[in-house]
Write a structure and sequence with these properties.
The longest helix is centred in the last third of the chain and has 27 residues. The chain has a seven-stranded mixed sheet with strand order 3-4-2-5-1-6-7, with helices on both faces. The chain is α/β, with parallel strands linked by helices. It is built from twelve helices and seven strands.
Length: 265
């Protein structure tokens, strides 16, 4: 069974989509079967992979039950990497889903049919803690948290941790943080260094060693419909994301081994 990871942080502009797209592409380049689900109405993960969302075959229709999840999956230009696109209709899904009795579990029910087909399913969450993000968290085995090395982002992390606790207590007791990815890191500023140090002191080994720097290539790559790991593989941003993906793979492999050892005979 594949592992489903929600890439989440309610603060906007911290690198969620860049992290989703580049981790997914890196894992695929390293041989894993990967599905990226674009759950943001802006559709940035879709455009970042050079794909144009088509109404009627997106994550929105999957959420409201108009189509099966398998009908919304499409191949990308990257071997072993598939995509479920997001459209502007997702903005309305926040209101529509409230009317469903199983509103928090719609995505989880749909993804159960796909888990065996992929090693990793990565969900790009919107910058909020609404119904779409709740669906992603309830569908996920664990959470990847991109964190910009700034004070307000650090405050937002505390709010996200509180939200995860509520999700665990109400819907999904096994949900956990897999890792925190430090993004937009600039070692020249004392604030960035201080935030990185504080996060590592509090979360320990959950913070990846690889830190994604401020890098113009990461910002340029979506306009070419490519992850930075393909747009400029030798750039500092690409190297950081390749290293981060290998850490994620090592973490998930360790977790899988522990699960097998703890499983009853």
């Amino acid at each position: 069974m594949g592992l489903t990871l929600a890439v989440a942080n309610q603060k906007g502009g911290v690198g969620k989509t860049a992290t989703t797209v580049n981790l997914g592409a890196s894992l695929a380049l390293d041989g894993s079967r990967v599905l990226i689900i674009d759950l943001d109405s802006q559709g940035s993960a879709s455009s970042g992979l050079g794909e144009t969302p088509v109404k009627g075959t997106s994550s929105y229709e999957v959420l409201i039950g108009e189509i099966a999840a398998s009908e919304a999956v499409r191949a990308t230009s990257i071997d072993r990497l598939s995509l479920m696109t997001g459209t502007r209709d997702l903005a309305g899904a926040e209101v529509e889903l409230v009317t469903y009795e199983d509103r928090h579990a719609r995505l989880r029910q749909q993804l159960d049919t796909l888990r065996g087909s992929y090693d990793y399913i990565l969900i790009d969450c919107p910058p909020s803690l609404g119904m779409l993000t709740l669906n992603a968290l309830c569908a996920a085995d664990a959470v990847v948290v991109p964190l910009q090395c700034e004070f307000y982002a650090l405050e937002g992390l505390g709010a996200l941790v509180d939200t995860l606790e509520r999700v665990r207590s109400s819907f999904h007791p096994d949900l956990r943080i897999l890792c925190i990815v430090l993004t937009m890191y600039d070692a020249r500023t004392s604030l960035n260094r201080q935030v990185a140090r504080q996060v590592r002191e509090y979360f320990g080994d959950k913070v990846l060693r690889a830190m994604v720097p401020r890098n113009i290539r990461i910002s340029e790559s979506p306009s070419y419909g490519l992850p930075v790991v393909l747009y400029d593989p030798t750039s500092l941003g690409a190297i950081a994301y390749r290293n981060a993906a290998r850490e994620v793979a090592a973490l998930t492999a360790t977790t899988a081994e522990q699960t097998q050892m703890e499983a009853p005979e």
